[in-house]
Amino acid sequence: MESWIVIAMCGLYVCLEAFAAYILHKFHLVKSEGIRKFIHIATSFLIFPVIYGIKEPELRYVGPLFFVFFNAIASYGGMGKIIGLSEEKRHIGLVVYPLSVLFLVFLYNKGYMSAESVSSGVMIMGLGDGMAALVGTKWGKHKYKVLKVGEKSVEGTFSMFMASFLVVYAISPGGVVISLFVALFSSLVENISPSGVDNATVPILSSLLLEVLCRL
Question: Using an 8 Å Cβ cutoff, are 32 and 40 in contact?
Answer without folding.
Answer: no
